[in-house]
């Protein structure tokens, strides 16, 4: 039966599909509310499965596993977008309270559906086209002036499934390879941009909305490395427009929970929507130390239809640096790296995900709060680099 905690606990039970770091940090927020996050994980050593005592082992494409994790849960929500839409619809038909509902979540799963819906809603998006032949891809690239981005319609993350093509010929060749493998793709114009931003909001079933300040996200090789909150020198009218757009999209799409709207600030200062995520998002990790309510607590509040928390920042700026697995993995243990980091930067707030270090994998993040974003950025990036590589970017030697 749904909505009745099977443990006899007076607290609601939120079940999350996926056992990654987002589930782990949501569990951390659940603890403070007297709750235990129930997690559907594929393996018992996943990030969240290590810390929650209520783990269901199974795959997110297996309907029985989804039913097991939803049994008795007040709400079923997600740490990733990979549950097939048909299974989500089946869960809803079987009475499971799925938040965000599949009709909203599809806009975070299918880039073509998202682009079409956003343009119908009058939201600014890059020019795009669906392509089913190499000729269409080439014609689109010629139409937009050459440089395009080819994206797999489903299944991409952290830049996987995104390929840049500088000429119509490249576009044709790249699309030919995807189509030969049977992978549906779309094309869009390559946007000339100043930087990337993200507008993070939350919405509850009651219809309450709340927005955190708009942030700048710095990407390297398609992976977010640094987040500066709020985005430095963003004109206040542009920041308000971005927040209002995100709140409007949350409402029009029927989102429940956290919604991240990833944006491009174009070279002439306009905003375009890149993509949507309907779950806690990397662009909101700064809220754990820099905002009155973290995105993880807010996501729980939203899916439980509690009143939403205050999103105001606690300090003028917070900078987050992602700790990304280095190649090669350093010989120095993570324990020793943390020890040295704390000795040098006592203000650094470290969040590690319990994941094995592998090149390019997000294994943690560091937040630093304060007044001067440039100094915060330098320290957060130095701290994150140290934890990844066991090497100080400025050559600092503790023994010198
Ligand atoms: P993913 O689903 O892997 O996160 P995105 O669609 O967010 O993929 O693209 C990853 C990165 O590729 C973006 O953060 C941005 O840096 C770059 N990118 C994506 N689309 C465009 C575009 N139309 N023009 C220029 N750069 C783009």
Automatic annotation (TrEMBL):
<dbReference type="InterPro" id="IPR013815">
    <property type="entry name" value="ATP_grasp_subdomain_1"/>
</dbReference>
<feature type="binding site">
    <location>
        <position position="196"/>
    </location>
    <ligand>
        <name>ATP</name>
    </ligand>
</feature>
<comment type="function">
    <text>Catalyzes the ATP-dependent conversion of 5-aminoimidazole ribonucleotide (AIR) and HCO(3)(-) to N5-carboxyaminoimidazole ribonucleotide (N5-CAIR).</text>
</comment>
<feature type="binding site">
    <location>
        <begin position="188"/>
        <end position="191"/>
    </location>
    <ligand>
        <name>ATP</name>
    </ligand>
</feature>
<dbReference type="GO" id="GO:0005829">
    <property type="term" value="C:cytosol"/>
</dbReference>
<keyword id="KW-0547">Nucleotide-binding</keyword>
<comment type="subunit">
    <text>Homodimer.</text>
</comment>
<dbReference type="Pfam" id="PF22660">
    <property type="entry name" value="RS_preATP-grasp-like"/>
</dbReference>
<dbReference type="GO" id="GO:0046872">
    <property type="term" value="F:metal ion binding"/>
</dbReference>
<feature type="binding site">
    <location>
        <begin position="274"/>
        <end position="275"/>
    </location>
    <ligand>
        <name>ATP</name>
    </ligand>
</feature>
<dbReference type="Pfam" id="PF02222">
    <property type="entry name" value="ATP-grasp"/>
</dbReference>
<dbReference type="InterPro" id="IPR005875">
    <property type="entry name" value="PurK"/>
</dbReference>
<dbReference type="InterPro" id="IPR040686">
    <property type="entry name" value="PurK_C"/>
</dbReference>
<feature type="binding site">
    <location>
        <position position="111"/>
    </location>
    <ligand>
        <name>ATP</name>
    </ligand>
</feature>
<dbReference type="GO" id="GO:0005524">
    <property type="term" value="F:ATP binding"/>
</dbReference>
<dbReference type="Pfam" id="PF17769">
    <property type="entry name" value="PurK_C"/>
</dbReference>
<dbReference type="GO" id="GO:0004638">
    <property type="term" value="F:phosphoribosylaminoimidazole carboxylase activity"/>
</dbReference>
<keyword id="KW-0658">Purine biosynthesis</keyword>
<comment type="pathway">
    <text>Purine metabolism; IMP biosynthesis via de novo pathway; 5-amino-1-(5-phospho-D-ribosyl)imidazole-4-carboxylate from 5-amino-1-(5-phospho-D-ribosyl)imidazole (N5-CAIR route): step 1/2.</text>
</comment>
<keyword id="KW-0067">ATP-binding</keyword>
<dbReference type="InterPro" id="IPR054350">
    <property type="entry name" value="PurT/PurK_preATP-grasp"/>
</dbReference>
<feature type="binding site">
    <location>
        <position position="151"/>
    </location>
    <ligand>
        <name>ATP</name>
    </ligand>
</feature>
<dbReference type="InterPro" id="IPR011054">
    <property type="entry name" value="Rudment_hybrid_motif"/>
</dbReference>
<dbReference type="InterPro" id="IPR016185">
    <property type="entry name" value="PreATP-grasp_dom_sf"/>
</dbReference>
<keyword id="KW-0436">Ligase</keyword>
<comment type="similarity">
    <text>Belongs to the PurK/PurT family.</text>
</comment>
<feature type="domain" description="ATP-grasp">
    <location>
        <begin position="115"/>
        <end position="304"/>
    </location>
</feature>
<dbReference type="InterPro" id="IPR003135">
    <property type="entry name" value="ATP-grasp_carboxylate-amine"/>
</dbReference>
<dbReference type="GO" id="GO:0034028">
    <property type="term" value="F:5-(carboxyamino)imidazole ribonucleotide synthase activity"/>
</dbReference>
<protein>
    <recommendedName>
        <fullName>N5-carboxyaminoimidazole ribonucleotide synthase</fullName>
        <ecNumber>6.3.4.18</ecNumber>
    </recommendedName>
</protein>
<comment type="function">
    <text>Catalyzes the ATP-dependent conversion of 5-aminoimidazole ribonucleotide (AIR) and HCO(3)- to N5-carboxyaminoimidazole ribonucleotide (N5-CAIR).</text>
</comment>
<dbReference type="GO" id="GO:0006189">
    <property type="term" value="P:'de novo' IMP biosynthetic process"/>
</dbReference>
<dbReference type="InterPro" id="IPR011761">
    <property type="entry name" value="ATP-grasp"/>
</dbReference>
């Amino acid at each position: 039966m749904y909505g009745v905690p099977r443990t006899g606990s007076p607290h609601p039970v939120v079940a999350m599909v996926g056992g990654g770091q987002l589930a782990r940090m949501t569990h951390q927020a659940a603890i403070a509310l007297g709750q235990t996050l129930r997690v559907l994980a594929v393996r018992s050593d996943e990030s969240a499965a290590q810390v929650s005592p209520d783990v269901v082992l199974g795959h997110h494409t297996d309907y029985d596993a989804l039913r097991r994790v939803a049994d008795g849960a007040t709400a079923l929500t997600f740490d990733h977008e990979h549950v097939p839409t048909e299974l989500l619809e089946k869960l809803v038909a079987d009475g499971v309270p799925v938040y965000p509902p599949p009709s909203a979540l599809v806009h975070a799963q299918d880039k073509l559906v998202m682009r079409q819906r956003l343009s119908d809603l009058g939201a600014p998006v890059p020019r795009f086209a669906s392509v089913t032949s190499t000729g269409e891809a080439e014609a689109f690239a010629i139409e937009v002036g050459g440089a395009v981005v080819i994206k797999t319609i489903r299944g991409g993350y952290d830049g996987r499934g995104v390929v840049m093509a500088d000429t119509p010929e490249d576009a044709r060749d790249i699309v030919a390879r995807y189509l030969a493998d049977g992978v549906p793709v779309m094309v869009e114009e390559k946007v000339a941009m100043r930087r990337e931003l993200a507008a993070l909001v939350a919405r509850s079933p009651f219809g309450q909305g709340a927005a955190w300040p708009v942030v700048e996200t710095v990407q390297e090789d398609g992976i977010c490395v640094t987040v500066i909150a709020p985005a430095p020198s963003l004109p206040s009218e542009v920041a308000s427009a971005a927040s209002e757009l995100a709140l409007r999209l949350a409402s029009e799409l029927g989102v429940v929970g956290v919604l991240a709207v990833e944006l491009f600030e174009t070279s002439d200062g306009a905003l375009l929507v890149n993509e949507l995520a309907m779950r806690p998002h990397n662009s909101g990790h700064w809220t754990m130390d820099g905002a009155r309510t973290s995105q993880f607590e807010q996501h729980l509040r939203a899916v439980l239809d509690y009143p939403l928390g205050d999103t105001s920042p606690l300090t003028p700026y917070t900078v987050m640096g992602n700790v990304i697995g280095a190649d090669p993995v350093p010989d120095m243990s993570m324990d020793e790296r943390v020890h040295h980091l704390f000795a040098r930067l006592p203000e650094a707030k470290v969040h590690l995900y319990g994941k094995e270090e592998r090149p390019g994998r997000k294994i943690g993040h560091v937040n630093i709060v304060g007044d001067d974003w440039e100094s915060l950025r330098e320290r957060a990036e130095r701290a994150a680099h140290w934890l990844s590589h066991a090497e100080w970017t400025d050559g600092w030697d503790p023994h010198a």
